[in-house]
Amino acid sequence: MDEQKLHQIVHEADNVVPRPTPKEFYEKQPRKSLQNLDDYKRMYKESIEQPEKFFGEMAHRFLSWDRDFDHVKWGSLKEGVISWFLGGKLNACYNCVDRFALSTPDKTAVIFEADDEGECRKLSYQQLLFEVCKLAGVLRSWGVKKGDRVAIYLPMTPEAVIAMLACARLGAVHSCIFAGFSTGAIRERIFDADAKVVLTCDEGKRGGRITHTKELLNKALENCPDVEKVLVYKRTGNPEIEMVEGRDYFWQDEVREYPGYIPPVSMDAEDPLFILYTSGSTGTPKGVVHCTGGYLLGAAMTTRYVFDVQPEDILFTAGDVGWITGHTYSVYGPLALGAATIIFEGTPAYPNMGRFWKIIEKNKATHFYVAPTALRMLKKSGEAEISKYDLSTLRTLGSVGEPIAPQIWEWYDEKIGHHCCHVADTYWQTESGSHLIAPLAGAVPTKPGAATLPFFGVDAVIIDPTSGKIQEGNDVEGVLAVRSSWPSMARTVYHCHQRFLNAYLRPYPGYYFTGDGAGRDHDGYYWIKGRVDDVVNVSGHRLSTSEIESVLLANKKVSEDAVVGISDDLTGQAVIAAVQLKDPHIADDEDSLLALRKELRMTVRKSIGPFAAPKSIIIVHDLPKTRSGKIMRRIIRKVCSGEANGIGDTSTMINPEVVDHLIKAVEQQFGVKN
Ligand code: 7RM
């Protein structure tokens, strides 16, 4: 963690006056979830001091149970046992679909905005129920039952939502794989989750281009012999798609035979709802497991209280169901509240930079939720496109995935929100399931750049990483942890509880460790600094340096490599690789160096995905290491950022002479002077 910067952040915060939710917010929709800051404080206090009472009531208010729970909260972080609503039974699909198909069947549930502007499709709650049941019928006939894992490799289309809900209906555990992932990453996830069935499509459409979804999946499945069935949605209908006989079937053909209603399977609150893979600092991606009751409650409550979503609202979460944001705020959160969700297949830049705004105007979206990286790009592209559209239906603007710089926050508030919206910087993680720290609409005044105050039930603490001591009071900084479990917290890492304990519960026994550095200012507001481990965040995509390192290492020309993230104006962080070659002469002339870099970048693109490809590859003679042989990424990071002066302690280094070589190589190849 960059301590100096953190000091500065917390210090700057002293001058910022908290801003209340603009009055226009409730002129647009007068029903209030919360009245004021005192409401928040009172409810927060109760949620921490009497979680059983607080969340017991919330669980009854927000969810429909087949059987009531016996215990609200059970276990402790110290023991590594976390459970909520034990004894309770419910079905997530029933809660997100059937309830509203019964009460408001014609109300829109899903609005599909395709990559091509003209193509749009709406599904009412009744239609959604029909589609979900049809698909669930196919899956059930294939033997998919409670507890089985089903992989979903689909782009942002209604079918992704239908697929998730169909799994939930049967009690099968879905594992979505981001459509931007390539073969290696797909294979790894399907293999680890031990999925027997994959739901996918023939091709995708994105930014005016075709993506070869099925082709990539086919390659990945060459090494996944346990996959028995693949259901392929015809998105483009390209007849050339390679289908494997006896394994691959077309979605549209198969669903025909099945009825428009099959009953949901009643699940225990603690039965897993889904697995979602996320990058950590060590090893392969972790299959984070979320459970039915607690997760769904967290999704519903945060969607209501942070964003103030009401049933008549239309949410546009410009994320992807391949990430947690898509799970919680494109699918489960809005649908659990009976609202409408916009599923957008394309990119913000196609056919032009006005695409988001056009979607908002056309659909009268009330909520918009996106990562700062997109906002930075849109801000750069100027205001011409923005002013063409009527954005006055918007009430809440959300930000997620990385810290939002105060200037970007101000821009968002002014140009998109016209100072009439609640602007919510939401801090959370795949592991947290739903918002951890975020301002509640109408209740918590905001400060540009601050995630503000913790959500109900989140007992946030700041720990001094050196002493391991809790930092009491305000104006403190350190690493962010949580003192007790909250309902939507991940329960384990799929088939590897030890990894769960090691990553989250053992670093500070009795606490959940977030992996992020943070400060708490004089108002008790939290300012998130970023990861303190080897996780990099490129355009809101979470990547582990070790994952990219091992892909590069698989290239025969590479003897060793180290990957670091450095800050980048556009993407937040950028991936930089320092590579040591087996034969250093390969890179002697410009042409072969260029070719080598291209080849290495391509390896990463093909294996993990285009977004993980290093921005720069620096060829080095040697990597900085400790006496015990550990690569010192911190040194590479500092030198690549032009901060060699701030390298700090090198006493544990076995090869201090490497620093000078590195400085030279970085200057020559990367143009950064130290
Ligand atoms: C939702 C999501 C999690 C990591 C997390 C942080 C960073 C997320 C914010 C943020 C500053 C924010 N899940 N992060 N939100 N940093 N301010 N509002 O992104 O699992 O993919 O990533 O993202 O480092 O630990 S994630």
From TrEMBL:
GO biological process: acetyl-CoA biosynthetic process from acetate
Molecular function via GO: acetate-CoA ligase activity; AMP binding; ATP binding
Coiled coil (residue ranges): none
Signal peptide boundaries: none
Entry EC no(s): 6.2.1.1
Enzyme kind, highest EC tier: ligase
A Gene Ontology term for the protein's cellular component: cytosol
AMP-dependent synthetase/ligase domain sequence ranges: 98-485
Annotated AMP-binding enzyme C-terminal domain residues: 547-630
Domain Acetyl-coenzyme A synthetase N-terminal: 40-96
Keyword annotations: ATP-binding, Ligase, Nucleotide-binding
PANTHER family: ACETYL-COENZYME A SYNTHETASE, ACETYL-COENZYME A SYNTHETASE 2
Protein name in UniProt: Acetyl-coenzyme A synthetase
Organism: Dekkera bruxellensis (Brettanomyces custersii)
